[in-house]
Specification:
The complex is a heterodimer of chains A (191) and B (183). Chain A has 191 residues and is α+β, with helices and mostly antiparallel strands. Chain A has helices at 2-27, 54-63, 70-76, 97-104, 181-190; strands spanning 46-53, 81-88, 112-115, 125-133, 136-146, 149-156. Chain A is 32% helix and 25% strand. Chain A has a six-stranded antiparallel beta sheet. The chains are: A alpha+beta (191), B alpha+beta (183).
C-alpha cells in the first residue's frame, strides 16, 4: 500500500513537471492563443477571423510575382503565420477587462517586450509587442482595444517593424494606423 | 473461430477508418450545401436561373474593368450552389452555424477567413485545401435572403492573390463562378 502511494506521488510529480514544461513552452510561443475570446463572437456585430499558416505564406512569397508586390513578398518571405481576430460591437464595453487580460497575460513572458514608441493615428489603445529570439524578432502582437472594437493581430516569424505598415490592409490585417518606430521618432523630433 | 471473427472485424474496421476520410474529403461541397439546407430549412436552386442574372452582372463588371475579367478558377473546376429568395433567419446563436461548418470541414480544410455580421445578417467563409500542385477554395456566403456555395480549384499564383486580398478576390471568384460555369 505504501509502495502504491509512493508510486502515485511520483507519477503525479512527473505529470506536474511535464505540465509545467508544456505551459512554459506554450507561454514562450510567438503564436498567441485566441480561443479564450472566441465567446465574443456571439455578442459582436462583426467578427473577422483570419488564419494564414506558414505553408500558405510560402506560397504567397513564391507566387506574388507582380513588381508592385516586391516589398510585401520580401516582408512575408520568412513569416510563419499571420492570425487576425477582430470584433466590432454595437455598444461600448461589451468585452471585459478579463478578455483583454486573457491576451495580455500571454504577452508578459520574458521573451515578449512591449514597444512603447509605436502609436496609432486612430483613437483608442493600441499595444504592440514583439517577441525576441536572441537579437531577432520572432513574432509580433498588436492588441487594439477601443470602446466598440477589439482586435488582435499576431504575426509569427521575423517581422521588419519599419515595413510593418505595408502589411496593413492586406492578408486580412485591418488598417490600424500603426506608425513605424522610425517615423514616430521623426515626428517627435519635428515637434 | 473467435479469432477469425475478431480478425474479420479488425479488417472491416480498418477499411472503414481508411475509406471514411477519403469519402468526406471528396464530397465536402455537397455536405456543405446539405448542411445549409438542413440548418436554415432552405433548398438550393437550379443554376440556369441564376446564370442569366450572373451573365449581366459579369458583362458590366468586365466593362468597368476595361476588358475581359481575369479567369481565376482552373477550367472545369467550378462547383456552384445558389439559394435565392429564401430566409436565412436563425433564432439561435449566430456562431452555431459557423461551429457546425468548422466541425464538418476542419479535418481536411484550413479555415482562411471567417466573417460574421449578425446585424447585417451576413456570413462569409473561405476554406482552403491542397489539391496536388493546385488548391481548392471553398467559399460560403450567407446573407438574409440568399446564399452561395462555391468550390473552385486555383493555381498557387491565384491562391497567393486570394491570400493577399481575400475580400477582393472572393468577390471576383463569386462573379466568375456565377458566369463562367455556364459558358
Amino acid at each position: 500500500m505504501k509502495l502504491l502511494i509512493t508510486k502515485s506521488k511520483s507519477v503525479l510529480m512527473t505529470i506536474a513537471c511535464i505540465s509545467a514544461m508544456y505551459v512554459s513552452a506554450y507561454a514562450q510561443s510567438p503564436r498567441i492563443q485566441l480561443t479564450s475570446i472566441e465567446h465574443l463572437s456571439a455578442k459582436a456585430s462583426q467578427t473577422v477571423d483570419v488564419n494564414i499558416d506558414e505553408r500558405l505564406i510560402q506560397i504567397t512569397a513564391k507566387f506574388l510575382t507582380d513588381p508592385d508586390d516586391a516589398e510585401v513578398r520580401k516582408l512575408v518571405n520568412n513569416l510563419k503565420g499571420i492570425y487576425v481576430k477582430s470584433f466590432e460591437f454595437e455598444t461600448d464595453n461589451v468585452y471585459s477587462t478579463a478578455d483583454v487580460e486573457a491576451i495580455r497575460s500571454q504577452l508578459r513572458g520574458p521573451s515578449w517586450s512591449r514597444l512603447l514608441n509605436v502609436d496609432s493615428k486612430k483613437e483608442g489603445q493600441i499595444e504592440v509587442y514583439v517577441m525576441l529570439e536572441g537579437e531577432k524578432i520572432g513574432g509580433l502582437a498588436v492588441l487594439s482595444a477601443e470602446p466598440r472594437e477589439f482586435t488582435i493581430v499576431n504575426i509569427v516569424g521575423p517581422v521588419d517593424l519599419e515595413k510593418l505598415a505595408s502589411l496593413e490592409g492586406q492578408f486580412g490585417i485591418p488598417d490600424l494606423g500603426i506608425q513605424s518606430p522610425k517615423s514616430n521618432k521623426k515626428k517627435n523630433e519635428d515637434q | 473461430m473467435r479469432s477469425a471473427l475478431f480478425k474479420n472485424c479488425f479488417v472491416v474496421s480498418l477499411m472503414l477508418v481508411l475509406v471514411a476520410p477519403a469519402q468526406a474529403k471528396g464530397d465536402d461541397f455537397n455536405s456543405v450545401v446539405k448542411m445549409i439546407e438542413q440548418f436554415y430549412h432552405v433548398k438550393h436552386e437550379s443554376i440556369p436561373f441564376l446564370a442569366r442574372a450572373g451573365m449581366k452582372a459579369a458583362t458590366t463588371a468586365a466593362k468597368l474593368k476595361g476588358g475581359t475579367a481575369r479567369r481565376i478558377a482552373e477550367a472545369g473546376s467550378v462547383k456552384l450552389a445558389v439559394f435565392e429568395n429564401q430566409s436565412f433567419e436563425y433564432d439561435g446563436e449566430v456562431t452555431q452555424f459557423r461551429n457546425s461548418l468548422n466541425a464538418a470541414l476542419n479535418d481536411t480544410w484550413t479555415p482562411f477567413v471567417q466573417y460574421l455580421a449578425p446585424i447585417d445578417k451576413e456570413q462569409s467563409y473561405i476554406f482552403l485545401r491542397a489539391a496536388g500542385d493546385k488548391f481548392n477554395v471553398l467559399l460560403v456566403t450567407i446573407e438574409s435572403k440568399e446564399a452561395t456555395v462555391i468550390q473552385i480549384t486555383v493555381s498557387p499564383a491565384n491562391l497567393a492573390l486570394l491570400l493577399k486580398d481575400p475580400e477582393g478576390m472572393s468577390k471576383a471568384i463569386t462573379d466568375e463562378a456565377t458566369i463562367n460555369d455556364q459558358e
